[in-house]
Amino acid sequence: MSIDVVEPKTISQFEDEQGIYQPAPHIVEQANITAYMRSKGFSTWEELYQWSIEHPHLFWADMANRLEWYEPWEKVLDDSNKPFYKWFVGGKFNIVHNAIDRHLKTARRNKQALIWEGEDGSYRAFSYFGINREVSKFANVLKSMGVQPGDIVSIYMPRIPELVFAMLACAKIGAAHSVIYGGFSVEALRERIADAQSKVLITADGGYMRGKIVELKKIADEAMGHSPSIQTCIVVRRTGHNVEMQAGRDYWWHDLMSLPIATARCETVPVDAEHPLYILYTSGSTGKPKGVVHVHGGYAVYIASTLYFTFDIKEEDRYWCAADPGWVTGHSYIVYGPLIEGATSFMYEGAPNYPYPNRWWSLVEKYGINILYTAPTAIRGLMRFGDAWPNRHDLSSLRLLGSVGEPINPEAWRWFYNVIGKGRCPIMDTWWQTETGGFMITPNPTTPLKPGSATRPFLGIQADVVDEQGHSKGANEDGLLVIKSPWPGMMRTILRDPDRYVNQYWNSDPRGMYTAGDSARKDEDGYFWIIGRIDDVIKVSGYRLGTAEIESALVSHPAVSEAAAIGLPHEVKGTAIHCFVILRAGIEETPALEDELKAHVAREMGPIARPESIKFVSMLPKTRSGKIMRRVLKAQALGQDPGDLSTLEG
Ligand code: 6R9
Question: What are the boundaries of each domain within the chain?
Fold first, then answer.
């Protein structure tokens, strides 16, 4: 495909001689953060930040007081059993009370909460009143299926409103949800259902992606065939194509929702602030995905305050986070965050370039989107088609833009800023992780921006770049990104594996700082520049995949004896997967086998994990302890010096 990227020539009126984008005075004046800063008696963000890290209990109590509690907390933070921190101890709370119930008492009752457009052009919208009805009805359905507080319900759905209702219904009755991204395949789904021990799976017949049907129910059927814990499967009819329904196990969502038990009245269950809200599986450096646990209280406080200050949500805004709800970004900033803030959130089902590369821009125009939050991979993907597509549309409703998932290259940043934001919308480059719950290093609308930098830590967050011993690195020196004190949105543990939580995140640093697994550098202005993952994780189009998972998928093929996967730069995906495979004796290296192995990985893990290339090799570089030295493969592929080879197997 020919690449038609024109580096925008417009120099924004806000760009200074150093290439720093200064915030427009009217944005600063109207920003939520400015109002808060003034209310605390400070005249600069720096002073406010300094206060927030010196008095985190006061700051977080302020943030918690923005929400409604059934019973107040006794203590903001209990750090008596590090790193198992507890927040808002003794408080009784439910995130759904804050996301829905409390709005019903105000004029927001009739405000649009969720506007949805399907890839096929279908349109649905729900007010807060409407969302409450759907969620309450479905919560009653779940209760009738025997779902209890503490259970984990697995959800495997396309990007449709029922996904949001299902998540909220679980939370409303004190059950935890585990959303498995709809792009994952049989084995990934089976493994996650087994770890969560789910009795109930919620899915759909299928979803639309690029005009084609994704066969979700079919994949779910295969996974359920090997999931003894599942007793009930609830299926939303989205595509209407034929799917198998197993009597006694599978039920249509719409049938259940029309039963008399599905009344629109359901009490929200008050739970402890530390009660689990959801499990979200994410890739780590070993094969088994980690079930990151988030809780009701601190998580709600954290995502609401980060959204409020960073994306500056205003009552009349239409906000669009274009992520998938199956990713943490969707959990925090499509579902819970915007609803807690009483915002109008827009959700789109399909591909950004379907049927044409102007789909997103036409949606911005059609719905009058004010805030657009997306990922560098999507920006690069759309930039490839040139400026004519966005230029055909009125994008003047946009006020703020956002980016998440991987470092954004300055070219993509400038294109997003100039061509989409017309040089007037600041870009919030938000660095965070599944584990952190919400934004950690991020600008706010008053921050001077440097393209490619996530700028500085959020209020109350102490981030640093350190060496292996935990000593701070100097300006512009590479090191490990750490967080030096706890925050309310942090993960609480890894499901069924608390040791892994301690070892993976807290032990590598002798001072007990949270180690993020990213390398970074901090410049002379205290701006953070994220370099990338230091562990064996590859980010493909912003999705986090473990090299070990890809390798196990390859090795599960009868022709493969050993495999190594690395990430190499890719123009659109950011990073693409390249594999090195040792075949079993007697198996011939053919192009057909290469294709078959690519398809095999896509089948096992999902299309997102399909390798870009597979190279047949006769040996792999390994350490004496048998660990594959992926950095050596990577250096070779990039023609770079492989560095220290002292641990290479002799
Ligand atoms: C939210 C999310 C976490 C990893 C993280 C880092 C990378 C995320 C970034 C970024 C540079 C940003 N990452 N945001 N890198 N700039 N603004 O992505 O969660 O899927 O758990 O991935 O993503 O490497 O460690 P998750």
Answer: 535-638
Select from 28, 15, 2, 11 the least CA-distant residue to 445: 28
From the CA of 442, give the closest atom in ligand 1.
17
CB of 329 within 6 A of ligand 1: the answer is: yes
List C-alpha distances in Å: 457 to 1, 332, 432, 481, 612. 40, 18, 10, 12, 35
Q: Is 544 in the pocket of ligand 1 (CB under 6 A)?
A: yes
DSSP state at residue 136: H
CA 372 vs. chain centroid, Å, equals 15
Second-level CATH architecture of 535-638? 2-Layer Sandwich (3.30)
Q: What residues contact residue 388 under an 8 Å CB cut-off, 6+ apart?
A: none
Decide whether any atom of ligand 1 lies within 6 Å of the 537 Cβ.
no
Long-range residue pairs from 472-478, CB within 8 A, at least 24 positions apart, any chain:
473/521, 473/522, 475/522, 475/523, 475/524, 476/521, 476/522, 476/523, 476/524, 477/521, 478/519, 478/520, 478/521, 478/531
In 205-328, the DSSP E strands lie at 207-209, 212-214, 232-236, 250-252, 271-272, 276-282, 290-295, 318-321
Q: Which residues contact 196 (CB under 8 A, 6 or more apart)?
A: 152, 154, 178, 279, 291, 495
Nearest Cα to 506, choosing from 67, 27, 84?
84
Among 425, 458, 463, 456, smallest CA distance to 439 is for 458
Three-class SS of residue 638?
helix
Name residue, tokens 């109590």: 61
Centre of ligand 1 from the C-alpha of residue 293, in Å: 18
Rg (CA), the chain: 24
Q: How far is the CA of 391 from the centre of ligand 1 (A)?
A: 30
Q: Is 522:465 a contact under the CB 8 Å cutoff?
A: yes
Q: What is the DSSP letter of 114?
A: E
* Nearest atom of ligand 1 to the alpha carbon of 543: 20
Residue tagged 């079919």 (tokens):
218
Q: What are phi and psi of 143, to 5 degrees?
A: -60, -40
Average pLDDT per run of 10 along the chain, which is 650 residues long? 45 78 95 98 98 98 98 97 96 98 98 97 97 98 97 97 98 98 90 97 95 96 97 98 98 98 98 98 75 98 98 97 92 98 97 95 98 92 91 98 91 94 97 97 97 97 93 93 97 96 82 89 96 84 85 88 91 93 92 96 92 93 72 87 58
Q: Helix 591-605 and helix 186-196: axis angle, to 10°?
A: 30
| Helix, strand, coil share of the chain (percent; to 5) | 30, 25, 45
SS3 154: strand
CB distance 454 to ligand 1 below 6 Å = yes
Query: Beta strand 613-616 with 543-546: parallel, antiparallel or unpaired?
Result: unpaired
Kindly tell me the sign of the dihedral angle through the C-alpha atoms of 535, 541, 542, 545. Answer: negative
